[in-house]
Fold this protein.
Amino acid sequence: MKKILSLVLAGAMCLGLLAGCTSGKPTETNPPAPEKTDPPASTQTDAPAAPTEPAELTGTLKVSGWDMEVSGSLFKAVIDAFTDANPGVTVEAIDIPSADYGTKLSVMLNGGSEVDVFWVKDADTIYPIANRGQMADMNQFVTRDGMDLGIYNGQAEDFNIDGKQIGMPFRTDYYTLFYNKDIFDAAGVDYPSNDMTWTEFEELAKKVTIGDGVDKKYGAFFHTWQACIQNWAVQDGQHTIMDTDYSFFKPYYEMALRMQNDDKTCMDYGTVKTANLHYSGVFADGSVAMMPMGTWFAATMIEKVKSGESSVNWGIATLPHPDNVEAGYVVGATTPICINAASPNQDLAWEFVKFVCGAEGAAAVANLGGVPALLDNDTLKALTSVDGYPDGALEALQVKNMVRDRPVADKVSEVNQMLGEQHSLIMLGESDLDTVLADMGEQSKSIQG
Amino acid sequence: MAVKEKAGREAPPAPKGGMTLRRRRTLVGLSFITPNFVGFFVLNLIPILFALLLCFNKWDGYNPMEFVGLDNFKYIFTHKVFQQAVVKTVIFTVFSVVITMLLSLGLAVLINQKLKGIGIFRTAIFFPYVASVVAVAAVWQMLFQKDMGLINEILRALGVADPPGWFASTKWALPAVIVVNIWKNMGYYMIIYLAALQDIPTSLVEAGMIDGANAWQRFWRIKWPLLRNATFFVAMMLTINSFKSFDLIYALTEGGPGTATTLLSQYIYNQSFVSWDYGRASAAAMVLFAIVAVITLFQFRLEKKFSD
């Protein structure tokens, strides 16, 4: 008897292994049709004594974003701007730490209608969420309100999947070159120009690598993300990470390996990775001369200098470009804002989306030094004149063409994960470059089927 | 048993309040196990049965499930990362179990002495087990750091010209993870061995001493056989825990570099929360379950054989 009991208990213990792998339950996916409480403005003309302004909005919206309590949060800024303009609406912000955002958002959406409106952090998670039918199609609202999506310079089309407008472009971030003026001055070298090829960048890094040992200043810094090498290979718009022949990565990996292993002009990947160095710390403490990084980093640097955490005298230049394209070809990502298909507040949710992606939202973003998706030269001028932005930022941030670092496509998160794993093998020198590139191709083919 | 007999003797013969004593006792007993059983049922059993269902379906966690037969198993068995994960999990388990057992037994023997301040040593050895995984991982990442980590500094001082890259090396990441896992768990198993050692009647050991057995003979001939039950328990718990090891490795390496430390549980996590494919994740979880179940049954057999 005792044996059997202990067997059962041990069995239960093993079974415990399997628990926790499942959650949620299937939910109906058809987005509820929006209630037509607000007739289109054009038909409102014959309404008796109708005010020309739309009725005041009321209700409660649950909006999820990440790191909203961090000072300078753009999400918080636009939410505040919206509630100031619409005092009848209460916005409940669901604040999630950025590292967990992707997973928590998906779990929340699988749970049903816990959230009405959400931002999507990682470009590779957009398609899977849309594919599950959790993003409401905003076409009906766009048509109803007669909105022109052309104002987003083609970014709105990125979130159009099979004719469904599943997201609206909220903010745009693209890679640019941050540099440390103090190191350039110490080395007696001119600051980086806004028109520089990656080859010229590599040469320049040699000139601004100074010192030895703990005092060494590195000419360049590539953060450990695969984006910080692979992005330069897709920058010309000829390839995407969904290609299955990755030979186009080769010149950029060769460059990075040369700089890391032979010239020692950039910090060693293994050191950065295993010491958990964050790019913001490395740049802010003045150890590197040049760092290609997203435009979001400008707001961080402004904050760090203002708070006295960093005394680096920094500047911005246009991202170096491949030989076959001109300066101003950049690579980046647009953060979309989406409506939960299962939300019962579709109309109010749309009003919020329209506001934050519109002129008022863009102004709130630009006031904090962020780059709104609704970007024209005036907005760019406004944001680069935010206190703390370095001189010349307006010229440096000019964009001629922007390609997405991760396309909105099926299986992109699996491919992205695989490329990340392989990236570390190359940068650690664990495998021969050609072997890894060939293996990437094989795995990508097998993932994409 | 003793309680039951005692209760039987004292039980009044006549039933009270229309309910027999037996029935009342049964109900009281049931009420004691109900909270635990409800918890087990809702939090374990239902999800487990659901996972069993899931491994034959394709499910993203939101849309209706789609029956796919054995496709999920076909996929994972032909997936290189999965195959490697199985091999690595077995390597991880074998090394973790054997070394942790030896070390925890050794420590238990050493610490099973009447010394001043022995409590401090016991606490020190047990402490890693209760420490937060994240904190432990952060400290070990620093110790194993390839350029300025303490371990490589010591190796260099000892004359190793090119010490391993540890977490930055596909060859050395798994051994490094095993070391941390052993260090983290040995205190707990030491306590189990310590309790078992203290249960051994001193008369037996003293009898051995009188018969002229030396320290090694006293351990090997008297104590070790009496530790059999503890050893089986430790081996089984260690095996199960090693197979399902997740948090420590996730915090240390997230399965990297490349897929060097992607064990089965990490693979299951990736399938669930990166690919959002619960079917494949459940299929992999079933494989993990099958492996552990077979090993556990084998251990039970072994125990039975030895106790006969």
Notes: Chain A has two domains: 57-173+334-384, 175-332+399-448. Chain A has a mean pLDDT of 86. The domain at 57-173+334-384 of chain A is CATH 3.40.190.10 (D-Maltodextrin-Binding Protein; domain 2).
